[in-house]
Amino acid sequence: MSYRVAVWGATGMAGGELLRILANHPNLEVVCAVSRGSAGKPLWHDHPHLRLWYPEMVYSSPDEAMDIPTDLVFLALPHRGAWKVAVDYRERGVKVVDLSGDFRLKDPAQYARWYGEEHGAPAYLEQAVYGLPELHREDIASSSLVSGVGCNASCAILGLAPLASTGLVDSVRMELRVGSSEAGGSPSKGSHHPYRTRTMRVFEPFRHRHLAEVIQETGLPEDLFTMTMTAVEMVRGVQMLAQVTLKEPVKEAVLWKAYRKATEGRPFWNVCPARPSHLRLPDPRFVLGSNHCSVGFVLHEDGVRLLVVSALDNLMKGASGSAVQAANLMLGLEETSGLDGAPIYPA
């Protein structure tokens, strides 16, 4: 079975990653790549690594794209720029996976708080399913509107959700170390290479808007969290370090049981083994180019203090990979279709 898909925001990094995944997907055919500013230009001018896979394809304008029959669309558009397109497609009966932040939060009041304005289509917030299949596989499979996931949020959620389910969490102090591709393709003083290289710059000391997703998806109260963001010398990748305090002392076996139960049957979510010790806590380098998230933890001898570390590729599991995984479920395909490539190492 083959399905026709469109990619909006196709000139960007997430859009390019979608096109890379879809180039070898056995069931999804890209029928148009959409860009307002580059309509009519060859796709491979922005994505030269894809020239052999899309030698003749040129970008379609938004108006042209709306006239092309599709079964599902991916919206890799800027925040606040996707909801109108999503609503238009849904009114036409087309399934939508939106990679932006426009449909991630269920509560309109929380959306206004974290994104600084009222939502343009609040009725659709309740309809949308948060697009992390590890937590919402069944709901995604029956949905026609799935949100994207924040890359930092998905790293934190997958690291902490098994622990949150135990009811033992008293406080969480997270630091997320992020690569430069998280900032997108438009350089600023903070993200432009000459200013960013060889740095370890703390750009958010306590709060980041992706924290709203972590609170929503783990069910833990906001006052338990701090979320520090640090820009480091990577292009791809996110690593979360969470210093967790538990409500009472526990044995390590309790934690192993919680993490193994949560990840069982989830093909892209894994727990690092206890040995060898230098591989117990994951490095983003070990998952780059893949749709995998790895999690590891170490419990202090007091049984109360815990370090949880998770790592993923922000353009894959943190964005386009999860989006394709969700699309597979929405269309009744094998969840891993087009996504079973191994990480690239060394990178």
UniProtKB/TrEMBL annotation:
Biological process annotations from GO: L-arginine biosynthetic process
EC top class named in words: oxidoreductase
Active site as annotated: C151
Gene3D superfamilies referenced in this protein's UniProt entry, alphabetically: Dihydrodipicolinate Reductase, domain 2, NAD(P)-binding Rossmann-like Domain
Pathway membership, UniProt: Amino-acid biosynthesis; L-arginine biosynthesis; N(2)-acetyl-L-ornithine from L-glutamate: step 3/4
Any Pfam family hit: Semialdhyde_dhC_1
SUPFAM superfamilies: Glyceraldehyde-3-phosphate dehydrogenase-like, C-terminal domain, NAD(P)-binding Rossmann-fold domains
Subcellular location: Cytoplasm
Domain Semialdehyde dehydrogenase NAD-binding: 4-143
Coiled-coil spans in chain: none
MF GO annotations: N-acetyl-gamma-glutamyl-phosphate reductase activity; NAD binding; NADP+ binding
Chief place where the protein resides: cytoplasm
EC number: 1.2.1.38
Reactions performed catalytically: N-acetyl-L-glutamate 5-semialdehyde + phosphate + NADP(+) = N-acetyl-L-glutamyl 5-phosphate + NADPH + H(+)
NCBIfam families: argC
Role played: Catalyzes the NADPH-dependent reduction of N-acetyl-5-glutamyl phosphate to yield N-acetyl-L-glutamate 5-semialdehyde.
Family the entry assigns: Belongs to the NAGSA dehydrogenase family. Type 1 subfamily.
Official protein name in the record: N-acetyl-gamma-glutamyl-phosphate reductase
Annotated organism of origin: Dethiosulfovibrio salsuginis
Classification of source organism: Bacteria, Thermotogati, Synergistota, Synergistia, Synergistales
